[in-house]
Amino acid sequence: MHSAKEKVSNATAAGKEHVDILKAKAEEKVEKAAARTKEEKTIAEEKRKAKEAEAKMELHQAKARHAAEKLHAKQAHLGIGGHHHIPPTVGGQGHHDPVGTTIPTTGTVAPAYPLGGYPPPHGHI
């Protein structure tokens, strides 16, 4: 079921890409017809190429999104995956804050050396 939905979504995205490319080519023809210099014609051609590249990029992004949706649906169906909680690394309410980072409540910098056995930096006591 999900494979069919993904294929239909991909086909729709490919159709949109094709339409966008045809539109870019038509716009190029109009701009070239109105162009008076060789540079203006070159600019019209480069605009077309950029629009074609953008349409292809959007197609690949859509295909990746469809594959991710299929995978998420498959994992949800099997009861795996779920939401993963990644604790914040800086200022994270006591969750294993790395030593040597700014303390969010005071704005001071925590020491970057182990707190036992090493002298403080710059001869401070």
UniProtKB/TrEMBL annotation:
Task: Specify where the region named Disordered lies, as residue ranges.
Answer: 33-106
Alphabetically, which GO biological process terms does the record hold?
Answer: embryo development ending in seed dormancy
> What InterPro entries does this protein map onto?
LEA_1
Q: Where is the composition biased (Basic and acidic residues)?
A: 33-72
Write out the similarity annotation. Answer: Belongs to the LEA type 1 family.
Protein name in UniProt? Late embryogenesis abundant protein 6
Annotated source species:
Nicotiana attenuata
User: Top-down, what is the taxonomic lineage of the species of origin?
Assistant: Eukaryota, Viridiplantae, Streptophyta, Embryophyta, Tracheophyta
